[in-house]
Amino acid sequence: MLLSLESVTTYYGQMRILEGISLNVAEGEMVCLLGGNASGKSTTLKTILGIVRPRTGQVLLDGEDVTQWQVPQRISAGLAIVPENRRLFGQMTVRENLELGAVLRGGEKLDDDFDRVHTLFPRLLERRGQLAGTLSGGEQQMVAMGRALMSRPRLLLMDEPSMGLSPALVQQNFQIIKDIHATGVSVLMVEQNATMALSIANRGYVLSTGEIVLDGPASELLQSEDLKRAYLGR
């Protein structure tokens, strides 16, 4: 299994955010993690990436316990994240933001990686010298995804990729996620738009107040009345 969380409980100070959650992502899979506000979705990603350490439980990559690994170690092992609200460096150019995604790769040549990103996002080639902060929301999302891909990830973590985008751009964004997945990159996507996420995912998990209350194949969850109750909290 590429990624496994085993009985992970995570706190912020004295506040428990995650309670004994277990999930996994296989090589080549796209999995979505659904839930409402304050359900623990972003904390799950931060725990996987190592920004937050679990109080109990384990994070495993390829079956190896990486719970105590630092963030750079996990990125070097194949994790990358497209964070919520993109978090670009607005006073740096598009190309400079992309280069930051490869910073842990040292002095490697990046020509092939730029070609890959520009094939997925031709607009970024046109905008390569433009300051990232002057781009539209959709273009900034392209930069955030491209930056993550520059590290050559095996597993791409995506935190609310549709947030702040128009309906037309949401459709385009999810198609790009499908295209990225089709290149062989596994994906774990946190998303509030359950219907869109499940329409492209293999499997899904539903979080409610820090606990996984439902999981299964995406096609089954799309039809599930239990999903509606769990997701809407009633």
Radius of gyration: 17 Å
Strand order of the largest sheet: 6-7-8-3-9-10
Question: How far from one another are the termini?
Answer: 34 Å
Q: What is the β-strand count? A: 10
Helix content class: 25-40%
Report the portion of residues in β strands: 25-35%
Structural class: alpha/beta
Quaternary structure state of the chains depicted: single chain
Total of DSSP H or I helical runs spanning 4+ residues: 10
Low-confidence stretches: none
Give the CATH topology of the domain at 1-78 and 188-234.
Answer: Rossmann fold
What is the C-level CATH assignment of the domain at 1-78 and 188-234? Alpha Beta
Would you identify the CATH H-level superfamily of the domain at 1-78 and 188-234?
P-loop containing nucleotide triphosphate hydrolases
**Strand count, sense and closure of the main sheet?**
6 strands, mixed
Explained architecture:
The protein is an alpha/beta fold and 234 residues long. The protein has a domain at 1-78 and 188-234: Rossmann fold, CATH 3.40.50.300. 37% of the residues lie in helices and 26% in strands. The longest helix is centred in the C-terminal third of the chain and has 16 residues, at 167-182. The protein is globular and about 45 Å long. The model has no long low-confidence stretch (mean pLDDT 91).
